[in-house]
Each structure stands twice: as C-alpha cells, then as structure tokens.
Automatic annotation (TrEMBL):
InterPro entries reported in the protein's UniProt record: GH28_Enzymes, Glyco_hydro_28, Pectin_lyas_fold, Pectin_lyase_fold/virulence
The keyword Hydrolase is assigned to this record: yes
GO MF annotation: an example: polygalacturonase activity
Domain of life: Eukaryota
Protein name: Glycoside hydrolase, family 28
Alphabetically ordered keywords of this record: Glycosidase, Hydrolase
Species per Swiss-Prot/TrEMBL record: Corchorus capsularis (Jute)
Family (UniProt): Belongs to the glycosyl hydrolase 28 family.
Xref: PANTHER family: PECTIN LYASE-LIKE SUPERFAMILY PROTEIN (PTHR31339:SF71), PECTIN LYASE-RELATED (PTHR31339)
Any one GO biological process: carbohydrate metabolic process
Length: 467
C-alpha cells in the first residue's frame, strides 16, 4: 500500500521545481501533466493506477471546517471526468476539515482521503437534492416520495474507488436523527455513500461516523468490494445500518469494524410489489472478517426487504459482541421471491440476546398494494462452527404458517448461556431442517443427525474481478 510520505516544504518545492523542469523538457502534453500532477505534488496514483491526479485545493477547496466545498468537489470531478477514457483520474483530499454538500462521482475515478482529512456533511437539508425513490422500493424508506441524495453519490459508473488512509467521513447525524424523531423531515434521510447501477466499485480504508441513516449502500451494482471500513454511530441512533448490499451481484465485504444503531450488514433486494417487479436479486455475496457491535440489531440481517431474492451468500470469520442477534432473516407475506443458499461458518459471539433468528411475520409494507399471495421461500440456510457465550436465548425460528422455512442446517454450535437465560432456548415453528453437535440441544424440528455431520459450506469461490 502506498502511503503519502510526510514531506517538508523545502522538499516539496524541490519536487515542484523538478516537476516544472520535466514539464518544460517534455513536449508530450499528456505525459507532462501526469508527471506534474502525480510526481511533484506527492499524492498517490498507486493503488488505483490513475493517470491523472489533482488536489481539491486546485479547485478552490478550503479545509477550515466552515467554508463549503460543494462547488470545489463539483468542479474538480467535472474537470477530472474528462480523463475517464484516458487512464482515469484521482482526486486527493488533503489534511483538513472539508465541509460539503452532496457531490457525484464519475467513472475510472478515485476519491482519496488523506488520513487527516475529514469530510463534514452539510447539515441544512436545503443543500441536499431530492432524488426519485429507488425503483425497487417504490417510495422512500422514511417517508413517501423522494429522498435526499447521499453525501457521496454515483450512478451508471464503471471503475470507481473511494478510499483513503483511514480518512474520515462525518455525516454529522445528530441533527438528522433529532428531526427524524420529531417527524420534521419531508423526505427520507441521506446515506453517506450510495453507488447505483455501477460496475467495479471499491470502498475501502475509511472511517465513517454518524451517518444520518445507512452508511454504505451499493445498489443495482456488480463487482463491489467494501474493505477496511470502520463505521461508528451511537448504538441508539436510528437506522444507521453499516453496509447494505442491495440488488447487487458479486460483492465482497471484508475486514470491517462496525458499531451502529442498526444492522451491521443488511442484505436487501427491494420491497414487496416494487421489488418483485424490479426483479433484481442480491447474489454472490461474501462477508468475511467482520466485527460488529449492535445491541439492538443484527450482525448480519437478510431482509426484511428481499423481494428481488437473496441467494448464494457466504459469511465467515464473523465476530459479534453485545448484539441482539447474529444472523437474522426477516421477511413477510407480500415480499415474494426467496432467501436461499446461505452459508455461514466460524462465528464467535459474546453477549447476545439471540444467536439465530428467523421471522416470517416482519411487518412494514410500502403500501397496501402488496400481493397477499407473494409468499417468500426460505430455503437451504446453513450455519456451522459457531461459538457463543453469555447468550439469553439460542434461537427463535418462526416460518410462515403453512409455508415453512426448509433446509435449515446447524452444526458444531456451542452456545453458552447468561446467568438468567430464557427457559425455552429453542422456539421453532413452521421450520424444517437438521442439526449436529449443537448445544444446548435444538428443537425437534431440527432433526439430530448424530455427531460430526457438518453443514455445507461451498469450497469454490466467486468470480474474481479487477478494481
Ligand atoms: C487498505 O489498508 C490495508 C492495510 O493498511 C492495505 O493492506 C490495503 O492495501 C489498503 N487497501 C487499499 C485499497 O488501499
Ligand atoms: C481542468 O482541465 C483542463 C484541461 O482540460 C486544465 O487545463 C485545467 O487547468 C483544469 N482546471 C484546473 C482548476 O485544474
Ligand atoms: C448528482 O446526480 C443526481 C442524479 O443524477 C442529480 O439529481 C444531482 O443534482 C447531482 N448532483 C450534483 C451536485 O450535480
Ligand atoms: C442508468 O442505468 C439504468 C439501468 O441500466 C438505466 O435505466 C438508467 O436510465 C441509467 N441512467 C442514466 C442517468 O444513464
Ligand atoms: C481507523 O480509525 C478508527 C477511528 O479512529 C480507528 O478506530 C481504527 O483503528 C483505524 N483503523 C486503522 C486500520 O488504523
Ligand atoms: C467446531 O467449531 C470450532 C469453532 O469454530 C472449531 O474450532 C472446530 O474445529 C470445529 N469442529 C469441527 C469438528 O469442525
Ligand atoms: C452477560 O450478558 C448480560 C446481559 O444479558 C450483561 O449484562 C453482562 O454484562 C454480560 N456479562 C459479560 C461477562 O459480558
Ligand atoms: C414461541 O414462538 C411463538 C411464535 O412463533 C410465540 O407465539 C410463543 O410465545 C413463543 N414461546 C415462547 C416461550 O417464547
């Protein structure tokens, strides 16, 4: 990994001079610009191999925490977007506090935050464009109609990277949470990062704090990597989900640490009749090396909006601390489609209300037009190699009456209980499946297969992709 060297001003000046000399002796304009920008000013092109780079300050950016940089981001990215078909570009955000409203990304582009750079999201909602609801949701999640655009937004892009050396994006959420609780907002709250209809997306090595709502929302996209994020929000803040892959194909979420007021990872694919009509599943999702604290929500949630289908999800090496549940499947009549082929292994948990939770009666519909015959199918859900301590209840597994959740498999799970555990550890209704080496002993609906009958975890891997 390339890191920005600390350079004193003398060295910078020398490098600038060298750069200018190189510009003067180089008759190839394209080459000279590359040299001048990337070599002399000392910001990275490595890691993303962009041919052109520029700093936000080249476009009038001021990192004093007070001056708005919305225009600086806009003109910088407008300018850099011309290099999309010529080697791509990188926008460097230097140390400082950069107040900004929403801005849009471009293709073959890297947004790179220095470790001491903080983006501060503007707080006045008049600074936020209102965009259409997501077609697979039909309406905003908080309110009918449109939604405030996210702080960093991109749509219909190819090859886009948002990264840093653990630089910070601060959503300044408290005022949004307050207005949300007081029902003072006309539209759905913004997310920190939303990338829509895009291919080859990387979001890495950043700290995201106090998002107004969800943090990272890749939607209708493919070949997405989310890596090395620290996501922090008060555990009581509303809907501050960590990472929400939504109708995405081939996504990898790894090495993230999340403390939040909602699910750490929430896998989605649209809401009732809108999601069914749009018909775009989330599939080929790998989640690994995730550490989560979420006292009122799940480490990994599947749903409740799953109406495009969720399939082929693998999660491994997951640590959950002080969370409500480890893996939670939420669905309801009217959602339609399926959650199937889910594989989880090597979960370590400490202080959990519940380890396994599945609910077929999760309410919340976009409107009354959902199809009562759209029954979601929940099938082939596998958990193995689970160690949990200080747990209140092992599992609550509730299928849909007359439409049981099937193919549930739990093996090699050791669940240690709190001093005051629930009397009934496994409450199972309308489910079918098997178990092996599970303690405390599971419900009879999970037929005991005897010892050492491990649940499946596929050993192939998802298609690799370049970023
Ligand atoms: C993120 O940081 C890690 C650890 O410093 C490093 O190995 C990795 O290459 C970085 N990733 C990117 C995309 O910069
Ligand atoms: C934007 O791009 C043009 C090249 O088309 C360049 O000449 C100009 O200096 C750039 N603007 C800034 C502020 O760097
Ligand atoms: C970003 O794109 C969205 C949707 O395409 C648009 O509504 C919004 O005005 C754009 N924002 C800026 C700052 O250009
Ligand atoms: C983005 O892609 C989607 C899906 O292909 C398409 O429906 C939409 O019109 C595109 N939007 C823009 C602004 O190009
Ligand atoms: C990034 O910053 C956060 C917040 O300061 C810190 O908790 C985390 O350990 C840092 N991550 C890395 C890889 O340095
Ligand atoms: C059971 O799970 C534990 C914890 O992940 C693991 O160390 C152990 O090897 C597993 N046992 C078997 C037989 O797979
Ligand atoms: C165990 O869980 C309870 C809540 O059920 C919590 O109050 C207590 O602090 C936990 N103990 C430890 C040792 O983590
Ligand atoms: C078990 O779950 C059912 C719903 O499926 C619920 O009605 C019942 O109260 C639960 N029993 C206990 C003891 O928690």
């Amino acid at each position: 990994m390339w890191t920005t060297p600390r350079r004193n001003q003398v060295l910078d000046s020398i490098l600038l001079l060298v750069g200018i000399v190189l510009v003067l002796i180089n008759i190839n304009g394209v080459e000279s610009r590359k040299v001048r920008l990337s070599e002399s000013l000392g910001y990275p092109t490595i890691g993303c191999n962009r041919k052109y780079s520029a700093s936000l300050t080249d476009f009038g950016g001021v990192g004093d925490g007070v001056t708005s940089n919305t225009e600086a981001f806009k003109s910088a990215i407008d300018n850099l977007s011309q290099y999309g078909s010529d080697g791509g570009s990188l926008l460097f955000v230097p140390p400082g506090k950069w107040l900004t409203g929403s801005f849009n990304l471009t293709s073959h582009f890297t947004l790179y935050l220095h470790k001491d750079a903080t983006l501060l999201a503007a707080q006045d909602e008049n600074e936020w464009a209102v965009i259409d609801p997501l077609p697979s949701y039909g309406r905003g999640r908080d309110a009918d109609g449109g939604r405030y655009i996210s702080l960093i937004f991109g749509t219909n892009l190819t090859d886009v990277v948002i990264t840093g050396e653990n630089g910070t994006i601060d959503g300044q959420g408290p005022s949004w949470w307050d207005k949300f609780h007081k029902k003072e907002l006309k539209y759905t709250r913004p997310y920190l990062i939303e990338i829509m209809f895009s291919n080859e997306v990387q979001i890495s090595n950043l700290t995201l704090i106090n998002s107004p709502s969800w943090n990272v929302h890749p939607v209708y996209s493919s070949n997405v990597v989310v890596q090395g994020l620290t996501i922090l929000a008060p555990v009581t803040s509303p809907n501050t989900d960590g990472i929400n892959p939504d109708s995405c194909t081939n996504t990898r979420i790894e090495d993230c640490y999340i403390v939040s007021g909602d699910d750490c990872v929430a896998v989605k694919s649209g809401w009732d009749e809108y999601g069914i009509r749009f018909g775009m599943p989330t599939k080929q999702l790998l989640i690994r090396r995730l550490t989560c604290i979420s006292p009122f929500s799940a480490v990994i949630a599947l749903g409740s909006e799953m109406s495009g289908g969720i399939e082929d999800v693998r999660a491994e090496d997951i640590v959950g601390i002080n969370s409500e549940s480890a893996v939670r499947i939420k669905t309801a009549i009217g959602r339609g489609n399926y959650v199937k082929d889910i594989y989880v292994r090597r979960m370590t948990m400490k202080t959990m209300k519940m380890v396994f939770w599945m609910a077929g009666n999760y309410g919340s519909h976009p409107d009354n037009d959902f199809d009562p015959n759209a029954i979601p199918v929940i099938q082939n859900i596998n958990f193995r190699d689970v160690v949990a301590e200080n747990v209140t209840m092992a599992a609550r597994l509730e299928g849909i009456p007359g439409h049981p959740f099937t193919g549930i498999c739990i093996s090699n799970a050791t669940i240690g209980l709190t001093k005051k555990p629930k009397k009934i550890q496994w409450n199972c209704t309308e489910i079918a499946g098997v178990s092996s080496d599970v303690s405390p002993p599971p419900c009879n609906l999970l037929t005991d297969q005897g010892p050492e009958n491990a649940c499946n975890f596929p050993d192939d891997s998802f298609p690799s992709f370049k970023i």
